[in-house]
Amino acid sequence: MRNKRLFGWREIDELGDLERMLLVFEYLPDEELMQKLERERGHGRNDYPVRAVWNSILVRVVFQHTSVESLRRELKRNAQLRELCGFDPARERMPFHLCIQPLLVD
């Protein structure tokens, strides 16, 4: 009996960076975490939505940014990536280091 493949690595390798990032966003089972973080945030300002900030943390890991500053530069440069994360693509200013710094270890 032959095993069926769910996907081929070659197919993943042929995808662009944004397409691979979208796969991470779609298949990572993080909904429970997002709901918890949104409850903890409460009803304060939502300049940087929890989901968008979380997605940017995933971008940092997947794209191997070595610092928050490197990630900020990438997001400022790349409107498509900002939009994919859930940020307003027209908003280049990304001073969200205070939001994500507690969750990251440099």
Automatic annotation (TrEMBL):
Domain (Transposase InsH N-terminal) ranges: 25-94
InterPro entries: Transposase_InsH_N
Official protein name in the record: Transposase domain
Origin species: Desulfofundulus thermosubterraneus DSM 16057
